[in-house]
Amino acid sequence: MPDRTEWTGQKTCDYCGKTAATMYDSASKEGPWAFMCPECWKEHGFGKLGVGFGQRYDRDPDGRFFKTAG
Predict the structure, then answer these.
(1) Residue 59, SS3?
(2) Where does residue 33 fall: left (phi above 0), alpha (psi -120 to 50 degrees), or beta otherwise?
(3) CA separation (Å) from 58 to 2, 30, 31, 39?
(4) Between the CA of residue 13 and those of 1, 2, 3, 22, what are the distances in Å?
(5) What is the reported pLDDT for 3?
């Protein structure tokens, strides 16, 4: 089984400050990359994932985030 990629940065949204079960490390329409909750990603992200756009991270029951897309 391949190793999972864990998010080790802060766990709160750079825009609104909340933590959700799914978070995005993504480029923003404003320019810089940000760690975003789903609502802020819909508003500030580009709406797609992958190289140059971003990654999706889902929270495990223990509170750690692991990459699930992108």
Answers:
(1) strand
(2) beta
(3) 17, 24, 24, 15
(4) 30, 28, 25, 11
(5) 85
Range of the domain at 29: 14-60
How far is residue 64's CA from residue 49's CA, in Å, rounded to a whole number?
Answer: 20
Report the domain count for the chain. 1
| Residue 24 domain flag | yes
pLDDT in tens, 9-62: 999 999 999 999 999 999 999 999 999 999 999 999 999 999 999 999 999 999
Three-class SS state of 23: strand
Sign of the Cα torsion 32, 36, 41, 46 reads positive
Can you tell me the distance from the alpha carbon of 61 to that of 48, in angstroms, rounded to the nearest whole number?
26
